Predict the 3D structure of the following.
Amino acid sequence: MSVLRGLGALTGAYLRETWRSKPALFWNVAFPLLSIVGLSFLFGGGTAAGVAYIVPGILTINLIAAAFFGVSLHMVSLRESELYRHFRVTPVRSLTVVLAHSATALANILLSVVVQLAVAKALFHLPIRGSLFDLALALLLAGFAFIPLGLLVGSVAGDMRSAPALSNLLFFPMMFLSGAAMPLYLLPHWLQRVAALLPATYVVELLQAAIVRGNLAARLWPSAGILLLTGALAFAFDARLFRWESRQPIDRRGLALAVLCLGALYLVAFLAGVRLEAARGPGKPVASVKPAAGARVLQGMTILDGSGGRIERGRVVLDGPRIVAVGKAAGPPPPGVPVTDLTGLYLIPGLIDSHIHLGGSAGGSAGSGEFVPARVIHDLQVYLALGITSFVSLTDDIDDLKRLRSAVAGGSMRSPRPYFSGPGITAPGGHPAKFFVFVPGLADRMTRQVDSPEQAAAAVRELAGLRVDLVKLFLDGGWPGDALPVLPEPAFRAAVRTARQLGLRTTVHVDDDRHAQLALDAGADAIEHLPPDLSAETARQLAERGIFLTPTLVAAEGLMRALAAAPIDDPLVRKWVIPAVLDSLRSPDSWLARVRASPAAMAFYTRRYERSRGALRRAVAAHVPLLAGSDGGNPAAFHGLGLLRELELMVEEGGMSPGAALVAATGAAARRLGSTEIGRIAPGAFADLVVLGDDPARDIRALRQVRAVYFGGQPLPRETLLSTPPGGWMPGRPR
């Protein structure tokens, strides 16, 4: 009989039985929830950053508990009830029973993890620095190792009296010595070495890499290899050691061979001196690294890592374009590596502007001088000079941005790292297609205008082929006296659905709460612009679902100031913005002059800005995950400077803490993109770093005091960025 025959039915029966069992409910639901809440307060202090560091250990504890108690005790109880003995006279094979237990355990474990993470997210706003794929991979590797270990225990345990004792004999050493219950870096060095002999240690390593550091790829080996070999070896013996009846003798030779093989695996890991990242912990001294050509050390400064973490008197080791180590500056730096002393200063990740329009000038569109390639090149240098090392360009020329991405990756262009959506999807003649008609063919290049589900799905598939970083859709009905067609709901839903099927993130430009609700209901990943009428219910749903919102309040403020012809007295604006853009804002030939002449239009924009300020306060109070985006390119939303002003508004108008605002422009912005390479100071990330004179977590205006910028590990010559050639890329140049 095939091993797979009857597997589904048997798994279903096991699942129903475990969820009717009080012990199973305790180990799968009650114990995990008690531990995630209790230990988060006890060891994590209830703070997001503290909880993030201990959640991997809590998940590990619950996983090994599910394996050593849930799986094994379930097997022993079925054997004692003589259910297996009845199976024995049927065509069901021992391997089928083992696989059914494995599938049942995996389903229960994954469900338990989802519940735990949901609670941690709701109660403590748990940040997860890696992608959901990284987290799922780490959990699957852990389950693959521990479920067969639990099956081994269940196979050799004598009865329901001795089985708990045997499980405890394995459970407690793994819980306390692996870094799961107590952080590994708090244990003596010799116990840290012993941890290499325990499978649970490598589960903690992978989960910390996925949740805390966001660098699973860098920590995948050897931890993943050890867990894969553990699962493979244990599975190889599970069917051999499986017993149909309690009185059936244990295959002692098989058991001895299983222990010998697993012991040899972990002895090799121990003797090889596997380096455990968890042994360093937050703020622990940086482990010594083998320097390579181009390596350098920055030390003495306070590190703000982009996820809310803080290290005083820190040290960061750079190797080429990447960060290889982060921690306290205790002991001598790696030998032979140049050291830059930054004592008294502050180090943050390169900032990310999550919403710009590189083609926009930030002026009033009064003359062609605002749109020459030189202005674009100038603005790219301004971003870098202000510490903005990445941006998300929405609805810009995709050919230009693809060439820029290649040039930056190849080192032939000095520019922030570009992420982009390419053409936005909108209704025929809708926003923003209507505003591109002044140049023949521009609307077709910058947008995809669709009105049916089939056209919408085709547009998304086209964008997927163009390798965009996210898909942008428009739901905007215009304004009084100038209504615009809106993307039909069936087409909108088809676009979001197709993007999800293709693994593409979506973000939606909205103009009001009704359209924000539609975006939420359709399953969009993010929303651009703050609806002035943002409702409490929409804010609650955004927070509960973890949907990112980019307010872009600075664009509304800039438009109001431009319409009011307010004086521009910011010294940074005078230093970094080209005069043609500033002159355009006051030009009688700009479209702003026409708006000033309309009392109705002035009243509309004034009221909209005031309502948006209130909406921002509601979003912050509801804990909506906010991103910092300037909408740079719109009137007086100056490239580079707009992001600094947006962050100030998030703090001053929205009531956000400066530290949270900084995360909105670093770690949170990277998470929206699914990137672990930017927005953080952690091993494996790009060495895009900004040195500041004051602490931005206490005063957000400290971001104006940039002392140095590192891009890909190299310091940038800030004062000569505008006067030295940046490279060969230029917008509008053919391929």
Remarks:
- The longest helix spans residues 48-80.
- Residues 7-278 form one domain.
